[in-house]
Amino acid sequence: MTQDTPDTPETPDAHGAPVPHSLLGKTVLITGAARRVGATIARTLHTAGANLVLHYRSSADDAAALAGELNAVRPASAVCSASNAICSRRTACRR
After folding, report:
1. The CATH number of the domain where 56 resides is what?
2. Is residue 36 one of the residues assigned to a domain?
3. Nearest-angstrom CA–CA distance, 8 and 21
4. What is the value of pTM for the model shown?
5. 43 part of a folded domain
């Protein structure tokens, strides 16, 4: 774990507490990012400076809305990625 230095830029989180930009320049893939917990994780990591790949299976509209919300704050910082793969323990992934 690294310590923040005084010159580390910070932004407020959803509750107004400062969040250091420890993820600036990093890209994070979040599966199930379009809704609920995944969307909350996406917003939190985005606030910390991460660029995001928002992965979804069937929530294209929700993923696009979230990407739009995040890109309005920091342009070109979030993209969507769909997966229609069906996997089971007995078979390989197929489309």
Report:
1. 3.40.50.720
2. yes
3. 7
4. 0.69
5. yes
